[in-house]
Amino acid sequence: MQHSEPATTPFVITNPLPDPLAASKLQVGDTFAFPEDPTPLTVLSARADSHFNGFLLLRVDGSDLPLCIRETEDVRPLRMPRTFHLPCVLCGEVTRSDLDLATNGEPRLLVCARH
Ligand SMILES: [Zn+2]
Prior knowledge:
By secondary structure, this protein is mostly beta strands. The chain has 2 domains: 1-17 and 80-115, no CATH class; 20-78, Roll (SH3 type barrels). The protein has one helix spanning 101-104, and strands spanning 2-4, 11-15, 21-22, 31-34, 37-48, 55-60, 67-70, 74-79, 81-87, 94-100, 106-111.
């Protein structure tokens, strides 16, 4: 478990992301690398392959050809910005928090800035 406190402060308690992570967790705008190659790749588009079940077609920055990889393929998450709206555990007020899952981890509990 890891604590993080962004500048605009709700206090969020997080679980670190698994590293490596399944490729199916990637979304457009995320940056990742393959375990065997440290080159950072940014996802431009991601969709399920319509011909092969369990495969993804990823378009990445700097390559004209889409990558076809298994949804379960291991990737190393480098940057995964997400916005969450979570209820404060003390007062219940739903509060927005912007986290980078790759550095902050996944949110579990939030305490809003009023406490
Ligand atoms: Zn609160």
